[in-house]
Amino acid sequence: MGKGYHNRMDYYYRKAKVEGYRSRAAYKLKEINKKYNVIRKGDIVVDLGAAPGGWIQVSREIVGDKGLIIGVDINQIERFPWNNVITIQADITEENIVEIIREAIPNGSMVDVVLSDAAPKISGIWDTDHARQIFIAENALKIAKELLKPDGRCVIKVFQGPLLNDFIDKVKREFMEVKIFKPNASRKESSEVYVIARKRKI
Ligand SMILES: C[S@@+](CC[C@H](N)C(=O)[O-])C[C@H]1O[C@@H](n2cnc3c(N)ncnc32)[C@H](O)[C@@H]1O
Fold first, then answer.
1. What is the CA(118)–ligand 1 centre distance, in A?
2. Active site residue 35
3. CB under 8 Å to 124, separation ≥6 — which residues?
4. Catalytically annotated residue among 157, 170, 172, 201
5. What is the pTM of this model?
6. Residues contacting 69, CB < 8 A, separation 6+
7. Where are the domains of the chain?
8. Which atom of ligand 1 is nearest to the CA of 75?
9. Helix boundaries (H) for 79-125
């Protein structure tokens, strides 16, 4: 690990501490939203793999009082002071996950945005981690297909590797616009990139 790695870690880590975000990841979503305008005022957002909650905080800033955020994580997410943030402790690869999330949405509405920053615990075995990440991403895509409005937007974290192209093809079957983006706040050494999709093919 070079010096740059630590500087970079420290920069976003400290910035998150100073600015009151629960994670450095918050800055990745800020960059994504600045470039692609996925989250808008008043939106209903489903955030998969949301703990500790940095993406929830950023989403809440954008949607404001009238929007709704549903954060899902296998781990517990510490409470927020806003009543339009709902958190659910669940595994997003669980079979009935869509029903569990739907129960939290008033009037069974469809949602504007599905985010997934979910990632497995890194084992260090590169192809295992890649395969697990793609499996999680496929589950996020499945959830997005069930819950998103026709003009809904979706952001899914993936790891680069041999299974990525197949996954992107699957996303392209569902959405007209598909982009791949690596935020500056994402470590250069990490193979993570984000798939950003909009305009459903329905
Ligand atoms: C990189 S962290 C997310 C950080 C978050 N975006 C933030 O800003 O605070 C990845 C999260 O994915 C969660 N996760 C991994 N696999 C999951 C699964 N199958 N179901 C639900 N959450 C999962 C982990 O528990 C972890 O909290």
1. 4
2. no
3. none
4. 157
5. 0.95
6. 44, 45, 46, 47, 56, 59, 60, 63, 84, 85, 86
7. 3-200
8. 25
9. 97-103
What tens digit of pLDDT does each residue of 50-100 get?
A: 999 999 999 999 999 999 999 999 999 999 999 999 999 999 999 999 999
Exposure class string for 19-40: b at 16+ Cβ within 10 A, else e: eebbbbbbbbbbbbbeebebbe
Q: Indicate if ligand 1 lies below 6 Å from the C-beta of 91.
A: yes
Asked: is 3-200 a CATH 3.40.50.150 domain? The reply is yes
For the CA of 52, the nearest atom of ligand 1: 9
State yes or no: cis peptide before 81, omega within 30 of 0.
Answer: no
Residue 75 Cα to ligand 1 midpoint, Å, equals 8
Q: How many residues does the chain have?
A: 202
Q: Averaged in consecutive runs of 10 residues, what is the pLDDT profile of the chain (202 residues)?
A: 53 90 96 98 98 98 97 97 97 97 91 97 90 97 97 97 97 98 90 96 84
Nearest residue CA, atom 27 of ligand 1?
51
Residue closest to 140 by CA, chosen among 176, 179, 174, 182: 174
Q: Which atom of ligand 1 is nearest to the CA of 49?
A: 12
Q: Is the CB of 136 under 6 A from ligand 1?
A: yes
